[in-house]
Every structure is written in C-alpha cells, then in structure tokens.
C-alpha cells in the first residue's frame, strides 16, 4: 500500500455490511499486514435507519478485536475507531443536539477534527451542502469517502469535484476503484481524480475476505505499479 495507516474499512464484526465474524476480521487484518499496513482506524457505517452505530456499541467489539489480534501476533495496530457517516437527516439531528465532543453525542472523528463522510449513491442528499458548510464552520476537516463512486458527480467537466475541493472538502478514493471493482465509470473517475490532484487519501474500504483477495491481486499488477509513485506523492493517510 502507498500508506501505513488504513482510514476506511469495515472490519468490526457484525455491525454493518462488512465483516460477519471475528475470524473474518482477523483474516483481513492479516491481509493488511501483508500489504504493509501498520495501523488501522476502523470505520463502521453510521446510516439511518439501517446502521445506527454508536461508540457505546462499537467500543467493546473493537476492544475484543484488538485483544484477539494481539494474542494471535498480528503486527497491525488496532489504533482506534470512528465511523463512515452518511450525511442524512439523522446526522443533521446529531449536529443540532448541541455540542461536538459531548459524551451524549455519538459523533466520533477519525482523528482530531477529521470526519469521514459519505453522500448517497443513487442521488445527492439534499442537505449535503448545508451540513458540509456547518461542519467546516465548526472547524472540522472533512474527508468524503469514495467520491469516484457517486455517478452523479461524473461528467459535467468535474464541476462537482471542483466545487467540493474549493470548499476544502478532501477526497478519499478506494484503491479497488483503480482495479475496476465498482465499474468502468468509477474506474475512469478514479484515474481522472488522480491526474487532477484530487486524491487526498486512499482506503481499502475492505468489507470481506474477497476484497482482500482482489486487493492482493491488484497490488501485484502492472496497472498498480504504473500509478504507485503518483499515489505515494499525494496520499495523506499517514499525516495524523
């Protein structure tokens, strides 16, 4: 990997559409180790109404995974956990309850004041720009997960990407988008964003052992070798 810290993955077992068991989670951590990853920040979904995860739900599962990984000699630090926040009405409600950082507030950044957020896949969420503006005004640094996968961003001469970058929203692209896992459009946009200098962070977005197998195959490919140096120059995963 062109980074040592993984910032987007779904390895906490049984809480979303990611890992279904502790054994699968440990298997994927072993894969991370072979890819050169040294630290992982786990990011289960927070999406209403399907995945209303909170720190109280995730903390004991994170602790258990970290304990088992250590006992099995997996040389990857389970550094922390946060969430991949869907910017929906439930997120807006959390913001309106009051104070960021208050124990009663479920918002938990990746690190410092960095938040990993996502838009909807079928159509842009109407309140997205409003929430982004509020978060930025409150001093948060925003990382938009897999923008290359939002089909409504493609085309328009990159207008949506330019708009978000101008408003200080950074982009986290999925490595497997370069391999074509999410389709030709996502692949095309990932390469376009790399050429535009719009890849600020990378993520495996790993959900299951199959993703680990696909990553292993891609990381050994000539296509990956061709962009490796370019990725290393732009990726900020290790800046925290």
Describe the structure.
The protein has a single domain (5-239), classed as Metal-dependent hydrolases (TIM Barrel), CATH 3.20.20. It has 240 residues and is α/β, with parallel strands linked by helices. The chain is globular. The chain is built from 9 helices and 10 strands. Helix 1 (22-34) runs parallel beside helix 8. The protein is 40% helix and 16% strand. It has a 7-stranded mixed β-sheet.
Write the layout of secondary structure elements.
Elements: E1 5-6, H1 22-34, E2 39-42, E3 45-47, E4 51-52, H2 55-71, E5 77-81, E6 84-86, H3 89-96, E7 114-118, H4 128-137, E8 141-145, H5 159-166, E9 169-174, H6 175-178, H7 184-196, E10 201-203, H8 209-219, H9 222-234
Parallel strand pairs: 1-2, 2-5, 3-6, 6-7, 7-8, 8-9, 9-10
Antiparallel strand pairs: 3-4
Looking at the overall shape, the CATH architecture is Alpha-Beta Barrel
What is the mean pLDDT? 93
Give the termini distance in whole angstroms.
17 Å
Q: Give the percentage of residues in beta strands.
A: 15-25%
CATH-defined topology: TIM Barrel
What is the tally of helical segments? 9
The CATH H-level superfamily is Metal-dependent hydrolases
- Give start-end ranges of low-pLDDT stretches: none
The total of beta strands comes to 10
Q: Quickly count the domains.
A: 1
Name of the CATH first level: Alpha Beta
Order of helices and strands: EHEEEHEEHEHEHEHHEHH
Radius of gyration: 17 Å
Largest sheet: 7 strands, mixed
User: Helix content range of the residues, please?
Assistant: 40-55%
């Amino acid at each position: 990997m062109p980074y040592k810290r993984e910032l987007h993955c779904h390895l906490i077992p049984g809480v979303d559409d990611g890992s279904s068991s502790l054994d699968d989670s440990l298997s994927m951590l072993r894969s991370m180790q072979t890819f050169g990853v040294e630290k992982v920040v786990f990011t289960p979904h927070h999406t209403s109404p399907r995945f209303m995860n909170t720190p109280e739900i995730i903390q004991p599962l994170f602790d258990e995974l970290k304990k088992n990984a250590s006992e099995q000699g997996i040389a990857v630090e389970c550094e922390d956990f946060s969430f991949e926040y869907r910017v929906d009405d439930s997120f807006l409600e959390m913001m309106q309850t009051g104070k960021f950082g208050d124990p009663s507030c479920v918002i938990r950044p990746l690190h410092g004041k960095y938040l990993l957020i996502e838009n909807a896949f079928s159509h842009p969420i109407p309140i997205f720009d409003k929430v982004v503006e509020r978060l930025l005004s409150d001093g948060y640094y925003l990382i938009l997960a897999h923008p290359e996968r939002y089909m409504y961003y493609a085309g328009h001469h990159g207008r949506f990407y330019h708009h978000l970058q101008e408003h200080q929203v950074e982009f986290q692209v999925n490595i497997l988008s370069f391999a074509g896992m999410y389709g030709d459009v996502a692949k095309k946009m990932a390469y376009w964003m790399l050429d535009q200098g719009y890849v600020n962070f990378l993520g495996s977005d790993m959900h299951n052992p199959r993703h680990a197998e696909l990553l292993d195959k891609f990381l050994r490919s000539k296509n990956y070798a061709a962009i490796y140096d370019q990725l290393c120059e732009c990726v900020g995963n290790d800046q925290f």
